[in-house]
Amino acid sequence: MAISFDLTGKRALVTGANTGIGQAIAVALADAGADVALAGRSAPAETLALIAATGRKAVDIRADLSSIAPVQGLVDETVAALGGLDILVNNAGIIRRNDLADFTEEDWDAVVDTNLKTLFFLSQAAARVMMRQASGKIINIASLLSFQGGIRVPSYAAAKSGVAGLTKALANELAPAGVQVNAIAPGYIATNNTAALQADEVRNRQIMERIPTGRWGKPEDIAGAAVFLASPASDYVTGHVLAVDGGWLAR
Ligand code: NAP
User: Fold this and answer.
1) CATH number of 11-191+219-244, picked from 3.90.190.20, 1.10.340.30, 1.10.760.10, 3.40.50.720
2) Less CB within 10 Å around the terminal CB: N or C of the chain?
3) Can you state the angle between helices 154-174 and 105-112, rounded to 10 degrees?
């Protein structure tokens, strides 16, 4: 049997695809043959152009994922625009940094709502479609802080640890329906999310010293894992959190 990473004819929904990791994943899925709905609160002009160059279809669906209000509409619009939904990438996420003593309820709720609550309810809405068609792939963007505590980011560590747990919980429930649920835990990737760390000389040096590969990751470094987890090649992989971290966790 030939191993297939081909996504021709597949329909994908990627959240937070205007920039960073989400953009790299959306373009890679299109490169592999998928049509892609780009869901987010900012215009994904660059991503639309990059996907147009692959010859695949991309649609822009504007949604603020800080609450679950838009999730059902997002799935409905994707199905209407692309003719179905085979792949969901839960990528949109935020981070808030502060000392424990100063950490606010707002910084707790904003991160947990966007990174965990919306991810769950969007997965639920997508899973209803995937269960009906008896196939589908859900890919959650987790973090090294799905395994570790991090520094000054308690709501992010809690939410991303929750993402790892939810990945396994949903994988168990959806496996009999032919739907696989996995997560990617990116290492330190140079994006807006990590701009403050890159700019902090001390933290930047500490981070670099621990990465065996000896460099920050690029958004494109995450794309291969996403294509694998979206493709038939990973049909027997479910409930897994795949670190793509230049070796950070191996240290
Ligand atoms: P990024 O460049 O800041 O991208 C975050 C994306 O999420 C953007 O598209 C952003 O849209 C979107 N988003 C945030 N809040 C949203 C909301 N309320 N509604 C809709 N979209 C929203 O950072 P990134 O590094 O690519 O992050 C992507 C994912 O990877 C996140 O889940 C992050 O936690 C995770 N991650 C990143 C790293 C890293 O080192 N960079 C490591 C581990 C995990 P706007 O442009 O409109 O804000």
Assistant:
1) 3.40.50.720
2) N
3) 30
53 C-beta neighbours (distance < 10 Å), count: 11
Contact by Cβ (8 Å): 226, 29: yes
Kindly state if the Cβ of 67 falls inside 6 Å of ligand 1: no
pLDDT digits (tens, 9 = 90+) for 107-151: 999 999 999 999 999 999 999 999 999 999 999 999 999 999 999
Residue by residue, what is the 3-state secondary structure of 133-168?
A: HCCEEEEEECCHHHCCCCCCCHHHHHHHHHHHHHHH
Out of 118, 120, 193, give the residue to mutate to test ligand 1, the one with the largest number of ligand atoms within 8 Å of its CB: 193
Quote the percentage of the chain above a pLDDT of 90. Answer: 99
Angle at 169 between CA 80 and CA 68, to 5 degrees: 45
pTM for this model (two decimals): 0.98
What is the domain partition of the chain in residue ranges? 11-191+219-244
